[in-house]
Design goal:
Layout: H1 2-27, H2 32-46, E1 51-52, H3 53-56, E2 57-59, E3 65-74, H4 87-99, E4 114-123, E5 132-139, E6 150-157, E7 163-170, E8 172-173, E9 176-179, E10 184-187, E11 192-201, E12 214-219, H5 224-238, E13 243-245, E14 250-254, H6 263-270, E15 274-275, E16 282-286, E17 291-294, E18 299-300, E19 303-307, E20 310-316, E21 319-321, E22 333-335, E23 338-344, E24 348-352, H7 358-367, H8 372-384, E25 388-389, E26 391-394
Parallel strand pairs: 16-26
Antiparallel strand pairs: 1-15, 2-12, 3-4, 3-6, 4-5, 5-11, 6-7, 7-11, 8-11, 9-10, 12-14, 13-14, 16-17, 18-25, 19-24, 20-23, 21-22
Amino acid sequence: MFTNTKHILGQNKENTSVVVRSSILKNLGLTLMAGLCLSTPLYNIAHAKTSRIKDIVDIEGVRENQLIGYGLVVGLNGTGDGLNNSPFTEQSLIAMLERLGVNIRGQNLNTGNVAAVMVTGTLPPFQNQGSRIDVNISALGDSSSLQGGTLLVTPLLAADGEVYAVAQGEVNIAGFSVEGDAASLTQNIPTAGRIPNGAIVEREINFQLEDLQQVRLALKNPDFTTSRRIAQAINGFTSGTLAKAENSASVILRRPNNYDGSIVDLITDIEQLPIQPDQPARVVISERSGVIVMGADVRVSSVAIAQGNLTLKINETPQVSQANPFADQGETVVVPRTDVSAEQGDAQLAVLDTGVTLQELVTGLNQLGVKPRDIITILQAIKAAGALQAEIEVM
């Protein structure tokens, strides 16, 4: 009853809209196709700042799981681990061969064609047993390249210590390393690679989403306004009170008793709803790289900014003084000559009125000729003066 009623109402609204639009266009002497083409840009403008619910929230329980394993890559062309710096490679090779019925304990092994590696992968949600996932391979010892190597059977464990996948296959790398007696060349990272579809899922994660009566929608960027808008959009679409904003980071979605579908069907119905996300005013700066990212809602109260540079120049031009030719007495002396000058850059004063927007702030600083690293200092000074209505986050 719930699903059918909802879809019927949606179709009636859409059909009514088309009929009204068609009659208006006929009165204007235009065709219906022309009316649809003209209305498309207006629709895009109205939804330009919105995002779908599925793009701004995560479903509780629908998550990935990290997998890790330790293995051996064989078949290398002398670019494997050395015995002195990577003793674990020899121990792993001996243990593997013993499991295969080969006893080589006490023998001297050459591990130049073998490399110990760490294998990592991500198990997507609802992955079925027997399906394949990609894995990443990274050298653990002093191997110089994994080119041409093959990963042997490697169990991949999750945080609970259980094996969820088994990896094996040829390693694909995007780099190379060559060297001669006097020079060497390395491009990209030859000690790291990837095996597409290199692991087979052996165990499924026991999580039945369709049996739940309610789920929690976790916001990727927590915000009270966005959380409330999501709940209002869902309740308005379903004409009920199925959603409730629990806090700034989560919204509770409840499956109604008269709904014919499962919670999966309900999520599918609401995840396409457009939402206009809100965000706090924030300035993110990185002093190491000089990167500055400012949100659109950053405001500055009335403040005056002056920026000038003081440059000191010290030039050392020593001169040599020596006796004239054929002089009876004299010696060569180095006479120092130092030229010290100070240059004061033009200090400009700019006044920013109350409520200055992000673009006006950036434009004003650019007119002063301020560099990114100086802008970081200015922003911190404005914040210290209490004139920056935003949060500063230092990376």
